[in-house]
Design a protein that fits this description.
This protein has no helices and six strands. It is mainly beta and about 80 residues long. The strands form two sheets. Strands 1-2-3-6 form a four-stranded antiparallel β-sheet, with no helix packed on it. It has a two-stranded antiparallel ribbon with strand order 4-5. A hairpin with a 2-residue loop joins β1 (about 1-10) and β2. The chain is elongated.
Amino acid sequence: MTFVEAQADVESVLGDADDSDDTTGAYLEGGIFWRLGTMFNLGIHSRIVEATDVTLFNVDGDADYYQIGALIGFGKK
């Protein structure tokens, strides 16, 4: 489970406006790596946020996202 807070600030010659909202959602994160040789690590990592619902300036939306990335590192046995 995750808690997300969204905030928007708008500045213009007509004035300033701001709005904020918060929501809860589902959060899943994981990854895997392989040790290549005695110290070098190579892998993938992913993250998902789903089921969020935010409203800013009376416009409904969400803060869902998906992310995948490479993992490169060094370590000892």
